[in-house]
Amino acid sequence: MQKYQINPEKVKQDCLIIPVFEDKGFDTWIKNVDQKLNGLLTKVFESKDFEAKKKQSSLLFISDGEISRVLLVGLGKTKDLTVKNYKEMIGSSVLTCQNKKYENLSLYLSQDLLKMCDAKKLAQETVIACEVAMYAYDDFKSKKEDKITKVKSVNFLGDFEKPDLKNLQKGIDEGFIIASGVNFARHLGNIPPTDMTPEHLGSEAIKMAKENKNLKTKVLSQTEIEKLGMGSLLAVGRGSKFEPKFIIVEYFGTDKSKKPSVLVGKGITFDSGGLSIKPGDYMVDMKFDMLGAASVLGTIKALADLQVKKNIIAIVPSAENMPGGDSYRPDDILTSMAGDTIEVKNTDAEGRLVLLEGLRYATKYSPKEVIDLATLTGACMAALGLEKSGLFTPEDKIAEKMLEVGEEVGESLWRLPLGEEYSEAMKSEVADIKNIGGVGGERYGTASTAAAFLQFFTQDRETGEANYPWAHIDLASAIYGSKGKAHIRAGANGFGVQVLVEYLRS
After folding, report:
1. Phi and psi dihedrals of 484, rounded to 5?
2. Quick one: which of 83, 259, 438, 470 has the most CB atoms within 10 Å?
3. Which residues act catalytically here (predicted)?
4. Superfamily of domain 4-156
5. What is the pLDDT of residues 94-128, one digit of tens each?
6. Does 271 belong to an annotated binding site?
7. What are phi and psi of 290, to 5 degrees?
8. Average pLDDT over residues 79-90
């Protein structure tokens, strides 16, 4: 039986979730439910215990009858509803039910919602909100009662017209696939760092490819990385007992002669800072420093499962950045696979040192475009907080499309600057480029100087011309803190997967 059903003949439910607009009141469907409940919903409204204001909710218990519980969810005013707000409200209602051990849910989708959004889109975003809310990383909970209750079924209820039914089902199917990619990325990020080594990350990519015959994965060993001359990636991994890996996942959904889009993800499985060691408080959550890689893998998984007719390549340079007797040092000069030389000023600016090898390797595919994702700078978090991620690109068309898609799916991006002053700040006195720098001061503009560093490796070494169109996403909003939020549990949140899926398949 499918987890999501539309108007099933027999409705098994522990709770009925009813989203309501503040300025619309009860429609016919809700009035019919209210009648079955002897006017209880009307009484709740008249008492002003629930006024359908944005993010307001009220859980009602009914002593007997076919409906035992109703969760009223406020959508606020129609004109103010956004995809992001809608998904957060649906997610918070599902998470509330799950925390109360409810296994079978029903969710009402009104005609007012269908007028604002086509049936396929509404179903897709609703399923994604539900699946993201339901996900919990409880693998290490030893007591059964402490594990999160699995939701067995979700019924979509409403007065659906016949043309809507097919689109609703399509949206359900695609939403489930996209959400699986998001939660796959979250799962990779949430695995403890002792387990999530570069080798383990490579094994997960291989396993993913075995589950979809349209994917092909190669994991390059340290010996193979050495043969390619990736001195920058090798240096970052030198302080760890775990070898670095270079992971390549290929998906050809159309003629191989068509140029692929290449995704490059930062795969630092733990970042201690190396010899430029982090203070203790800043080392917590550094298992999440591979979320760029996780999002790239989640994206290509979703695109392959959707059977998108595009060619996509995912590249993940992966290492663990640890202090050790053979660690790379400040003042070292590294040489990349393309012969670029990099002066190391700080070993805690290591993510860009592994990414650059991926950006250089990407030229082998003569790509249509290259997009890299990385938890790269604290400066981006300082600038934007934890609700948006930074977008850097010299390509206006890429920026416009990606910003638009971000708003459409509720994953907000904000374009931050590149330019001559940032590139100049990264020039080295003793090498081609240095790995940290600021504009007017070492700590100023460092999200943009980090992006300028990456941009250097997207350009031809001789002419300085761009090898391909390029964009960089600095994942400022890749995790939520120890308590999570009302609509999503703590830890990795899978940011970037859905925005890239929609960007690449459109």
Report:
1. 70, -155
2. 470
3. 278, 352
4. Leucine Aminopeptidase, subunit E, domain 1 (3.40.220.10)
5. 999 999 999 999 999 999 999 999 999 999 999 99
6. yes
7. -110, 20
8. 96
Strand ranges (E), 135-285:
153-157, 215-220, 245-252, 261-265, 267-271
The verdict on whether 485 is a catalytic residue reads no
pLDDT digits (tens, 9 = 90+) for 469-502: 999 999 999 998 878 999 999 999 999 999 999 9
- Predicted confidence at residue 245, as pLDDT, reads 98
CA angle 26–5–148, rounded 5-degree value = 95
Euclidean distance between CA atoms 258 and 256, whole angstroms: 5
Q: 141 CB contacts (<8 Å, ≥6 apart)?
A: 147
Report whether 332 belongs to an annotated binding site.
no
Residue 63 pLDDT level (bands cut at 50, 70, 90): confident
Q: Exactly one of 24, 84, 218, 278 is catalytic; which is it?
A: 278
Question: Is residue 112 annotated as involved in ligand binding?
Answer: no
**What is this structure's pTM?**
0.97
Of 285, 226, 216, 224, nearest to 251 by C-alpha is 216
Nearest alpha-carbon partner for 146 in 101, 190, 108: 101
**CATH number listed for the domain at residues 190-505:** 3.40.630.10
